[in-house]
C-alpha cells in the first residue's frame, strides 16, 4: 500500500521510494529510507500527512506520499 492511505496512529515500514532523485535524497536526509519505521500522526485536509520518522515530525504532501510504498510494522 502507499503511505497516503495510512491511518493516524498506525506504524508502517518503508518498502520503496519511487520519487524524483532530488525529493528522494531530501527524504533520505530527513531519515526516511527503505526499512525505516514511519508513524502517521495526522491526516490533514488536502491530503497532507504529518508523520514521525526517527523521532522527527514533518508534513508530507499527497503527491509524495502516493509514491512511498509501505507495509504494516
Tell me what you see in this structure.
With 73 residues, the chain is α+β, with helices and mostly antiparallel strands. A five-stranded antiparallel sheet has the order 4-3-2-1-5. The longest helix has 9 residues, at 21-29. The model has no long low-confidence stretch (mean pLDDT 95). The protein has helices spanning 21-29, 62-65, and strands at residues 11-17, 37-43, 49-53, 56-60, 68-72. It has one domain (3-72): Ferrous iron transport protein A (FeoA) (SH3 type barrels). The protein has two helices and five strands; from the N terminus they run βαβββαβ.
Number of helices: 2
**Distance linking N and C termini:** 12 Å
The CATH topology label is SH3 type barrels
Principal-axis shape equals globular
Query: How many structural domains in the coordinates?
Result: 1
CATH class: Mainly Beta
Structural class: alpha+beta
Overall pLDDT score: 95
Radius of gyration: 11 Å
CATH architecture: Roll
Q: What is the number of strand segments?
A: 5
Question: Which strand-content bin applies to the residues?
Answer: 35-45%
H-E string: EHEEEHE
Oligomer: single chain
Helix content: 10-25%
Strand order within the widest beta sheet: 4-3-2-1-5
CATH superfamily: Ferrous iron transport protein A (FeoA)
Amino acid at each position: 500500500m502507499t503511505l497516503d492511505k495510512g491511518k493516524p496512529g498506525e506504524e508502517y515500514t518503508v518498502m520503496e521510494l519511487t520519487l524524483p532523485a532530488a525529493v528522494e535524497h531530501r527524504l533520505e536526509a530527513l531519515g526516511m529510507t527503505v526499512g525505516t519505521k514511519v508513524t502517521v500522526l495526522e491526516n490533514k485536509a488536502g491530503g497532507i500527512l504529518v508523520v514521525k520518522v526517527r523521532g522527527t515530525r514533518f508534513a508530507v504532501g499527497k503527491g509524495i506520499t502516493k509514491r512511498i510504498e509501505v507495509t504494516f510494522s
